[in-house]
Amino acid sequence: MRRIVETTLVSSAGTPAKLPPESLPEVAFAGRSNVGKSSLLNALTGRRGLFKISKTPGRTRTIVHVEARLDSGARLYLVDLPGYGYAKVARGAKQNWGALLEAYLRSRPTLHLVVLLVDARRGPEDEEAELVDFLGRAGVPCLLAATKIDRIVKSRRKPALEELRARTGVRAIGTSAETREGIDALLEAILSATGFGK
Ligand code: GDP
């Protein structure tokens, strides 16, 4: 199993011009605030605090690129997307940050996968379902990370994931930053989407 051995903060972009060059394959993470995005990114990378930047006031509406290096030497970008308002993006709202996000999701040729985080206990709300549709129309592959899966009793986990899949049409992986359940499976999916799988 590959591991991420090094991570470097590259940029925090508030406008398309500030996004880094399209030099590495990218995997972006989207989810409403409190869904467990920073915890999941920390669990994936083994770095605490790295993604805190996206939570500091004024940075909540930026797209944060972090370069991750694998033990194989391969490199990719993990991209932290702003934490809310996807429904408005899907409807084509014209606020600055909405336009930034929409431009990014629509026209980033190096974007290989969007991981959409959904609280395992709540399932997809309208906004998440709309983002899945939006990505489908834009031709961007997407998978769901059902976060805080440790809070669902074991016997209910598989049915919950199957229901998520049935409702959205995309694969759902149950993840926990607390127990690390699903973290390896998510990394594997990320590496497979970016061409760095086994
Ligand atoms: P963000 O706003 O999406 O970045 O969410 P955070 O990562 O800050 O997490 C929000 C809250 O959920 C915090 O209180 C975390 O401790 C809690 N949390 C995050 N991940 C998990 C998890 O896997 N299991 C449980 N039980 N709680 C979690």
Explain what you see.
Strand 3 and strand 4 form a beta hairpin. It is built from 6 helices and 7 strands. The chain has helices at 37-45, 86-90, 96-106, 126-138, 154-168, 183-193; strands spanning 4-13, 26-30, 63-70, 75-80, 111-119, 142-147, 172-174. It is globular and about 45 Å long. It is α/β, with parallel strands linked by helices and 198 residues long. The protein starts with a strand and ends in a 5-residue tail after the last helix. Helix content is 32%, strand content 24%. The chain has a 7-stranded mixed sheet, sandwiched between helices. The chain has one domain (4-194): P-loop containing nucleotide triphosphate hydrolases (Rossmann fold), CATH 3.40.50. The structure holds guanosine-5'-diphosphate (GDP). Residues 31, 33-39, 147-148, 150-151, 176-178 line the site of guanosine-5'-diphosphate.
Ends apart, CA distance between termini: 8 Å
CATH H-level name... which superfamily? P-loop containing nucleotide triphosphate hydrolases
Oligomer: single chain
* Mean residue pLDDT: 88
- CATH fold description: Rossmann fold
Q: Structural class, from helix and strand content?
A: alpha/beta
Largest sheet: 7 strands, mixed
| Percent of sequence in beta strands | 15-25%
User: How many strands?
Assistant: 7
- Rg (C-alpha, Å): 16 Å
CATH architecture: 3-Layer(aba) Sandwich
What is the helix/strand order? EEHEEHHEHEHEH
Helix residue percentage: 25-40%
The figure for the number of domains is 1
Q: Which cofactor or ligand species appear?
A: guanosine-5'-diphosphate
What is the 3D form? globular
Main CATH class: Alpha Beta
Low-confidence stretches: none
Strand line-up across the major sheet = 1-3-4-2-5-6-7
Number of helical segments with 4 or more residues = 6
